[in-house]
Amino acid sequence: AQKITQTQPGMFVQEKEAVTLDCTYDTSDPSYGLFWYKQPSSGEMIFLIYQGSYDQQNATEGRYSLNFQKARKSANLVISASQLGDSAMYFCAMRERKTSYDKVIFGPGTSLSVIP
Amino acid sequence: GAGVSQSPSNKVTEKGKDVELRCDPISGHTALYWYRQRLGQGLEFLIYFQGNSAPDKSGLPSDRFSAERTGESVSTLTIQRTQQEDSAVYLCASSYWTASSGNTIYFGEGSWLTVV
């Protein structure tokens, strides 16, 4: 079963505008972590932001913020003031840790294009 | 080292040959992951090592794939009798828990494998 869903295969945003990339997840574990990574065309995976399931406040890192809605099991990434360099693939990921299971799994990704 | 190091960065091999891909994690990182990313696709979990515990091999696609890790150091991913469908980028990542970033995983630049 799909554990991480990113329903937007491709997104466009005007430079300097804000954009929201959707991510929903599925887990029965009360303890988990959520991540967002950026992958530019060069192929490297760049860590952007982390949210723990018990964190009370939404995570923020510079222009990135994570809109965490636990009851809805969503962890959307908001990028404010988009820049041309933000054009890349964006992956949502979830870490589940159990006694015999510890894995980070990734969603299928969203391709973001920033238009000048 | 400063980051996760992978070698070779590029490998072209003939169908049926064996290949070895190497990953040197960030010093002090206890966890190590291997992922496969086919062109234009998301990240597919392959295997996870945590310290001296038994690895989570649940993502290995067939018995042609195997991986080893000695303690908390270098890991080797071996693909035997390569097939064209094995062509992909193989990404290695390592992690260590911190209160602010959870088990953020840091990626190497990947090993690009082409089977001809």
Describe the protein's architecture and organization.
The complex is a heterodimer of chains A (116) and B (116). With 116 residues, chain A is mostly beta strands. Chain A contains no helices and twelve strands. In chain A, the strands form three sheets. In chain A, strands 2, 5, 6, 10, 11 and 12 form a six-stranded mixed beta sheet that branches. In chain A, strand 7 (60-61) and strand 8 form a beta hairpin. Chain B is mainly β and 116 residues long. Chain B has strands at 5-7, 10-13, 19-24, 31-37, 44-50, 65-69, 75-79, 88-95, 105-107, 111-115. In chain B, strand 4 (31-37) and strand 5 (44-50) form a beta hairpin. Chain B is globular and about 45 Å long.
Helix content range of chain B: under 10%
Described by the principal axes of the CA atoms, the overall outline of chain A is globular
Structural class from helices and strands of chain B? mainly beta
Percent of residues in beta strands of chain B? over 45%
Summarize this entry quickly.
The complex is a heterodimer of chains A (116) and B (116). Chain A has strands spanning 4-5, 10-14, 19-21, 24-25, 32-39, 46-52, 60-61, 64-69, 74-79, 88-98, 101-106, 110-115. Chain A has 116 residues and is mostly beta strands.
